[in-house]
Structure formats: C-alpha cells, structure tokens
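Q: Here's a chain of 279 amino acids. Please give me its 3D structure as tokens.
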Amino acid sequence: MRVCSKGEESPLIISQEDTKSISTRDFYYYIEKLCKEYDKLNYIIKQFDEGMIIVDPHQKSYPITFCNPGFTRLTQYTEEEVLGQNCRILQGNKTDRDTVAEIRMAIKEKRPITKEILNYRKDGTIFWNELKIRPIFDHLGKLLYFIGIQTDVTIRRNAQEMAYYDSLTSSPNRRFFEETLREKLEQDERVTLLLFDIDRFKQINDTYGHIEGDKLLIEISKRLKNLFHEYFFARLGGDEFIILLPEAKDEAELMDWIQWAFSVFSKHLSLMIQKKWLN
C-alpha cells in the first residue's frame, strides 16, 4: 500500500507487517486522504478536452477500463459502449496498417509512443488522432496499465495537406517536392529527376475546355502515382510533373525509367464528355 505520512510530500510504502503498528485512527486518516486525492484527480481528468483512456495490459484483449468525457465526445461512443472493448473499435479501412504495427510494437515493448493515426467515430466519420500512449509502472517496475491520450488534430492535418498537396490531383505539389529534394541533398543523397509535361496541353484546354483538361491531368497523375508508387511523385503546376528517383546505376537503368514513364501514355486517354481520344 502506498500512502503519504502527515507532513510528508513523498509517498510512503507500507507493507502488511507495518500495518500492524498503525492505529485505527491513522488508518482511516490515510484512507480518507487517498479518497480525497482520488476524487481530486478524477475531477481534473474529467475536465480535460482531450480524450483519456486506461487499458489493462494483463488481459489478452487489452480492454479499456476507464474513459473520460473527452474521449466520449471525441469518438461519440458512450462509456458503457467503450468499457471492456479494445481500441480497435476506432480503426477502419483507411487506418494505416504500418502505424498500427508501430503502436503494437511499442505496447509489446512497454515503451511510450506518440503517433498520428486516422480513426473513426461511432457514426463512421474519420478524424486524425494524435495518440500518446504511456506505460505506467509501480515502484518495483511492474507494469500496471497503459494510459492513452487522444487529441483531434484533423484541422491541422487538413491545413498541412492544403499546403503540400495539389488541390486538383491530390498529388504532392511543388512546395512538397522542393522540401523533399532539399532534405535528400542535405543528407548527401544522389538522385535522379524525371521532369516532363504534356505537349499542346493549351490546345487541349482551348479545344475541349478546362473541365476536360482537368480530367486529363487527373488521369495522368493517377497513372503516374500507380506506376511510381515506391518513389516520390509530384505535380509542379500546370501540365508539369516530376518524379524523384534514386541515382541511376547506369544509362540503361535511366532509359528503363524513362520508358516506364512513357508507358503511362501507351494506352489512349479518353476525354469523357467530348468522346475524343488522345495519343
């Protein structure tokens, strides 16, 4: 049992043998003091805007044993619906599996971790969750439980996406590309850049309209992202695209990459409204 003696600031550890020497009056004093401290802590936790949960690591399913009102407001689940459940109830199809794996590894290794993860509310709406997980140990180093603190950072994430992603194609934009390239060069990495544009794109816009031109850009961007999904790809603006690759081993590998990029256009691109075809 951990209590504080009168006038002491640090916890006092009292064993079962020591309790024999504690008077009934002192015992009830300690219990009352502990209850008051618990009530104070419980009140403070309930005022948090952030979601907070406590998880039992000694049960196989790692069930939630406590949640504050901030958590129920954030997730739309009631306390009754959450208690006894695993945090997986907040995951969905768009939740990144690699992020989940990192979190599970930290829990397995009993270490703290902070990650931003895409979660789902009860009604199915998504939100970006800055999740902070902290293991809590007793004075002997035994793991007692995990505390999880959730903060909705959706607005900040959306603002970042607006700053670093092209609004038309959802591809990384020029700013994102320039910062990524700068980081690689600062790390003395040697890279290969493939820069290309669409011939006579202005003529396409003038002939078929900007809506059809936008559809063409979206389709090309989609094909390039699928083809070069392992590498950094960006739309610089207008009809200009760029692919950031590692340094080519030789001229043959460079030509392979160029032909790979040209293969995007090996299939005809259809302008849906005008029913025209482009090579």
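Q: Can you summarize the key feature?
A: The chain has three domains: 1-46, 48-164, 168-278.
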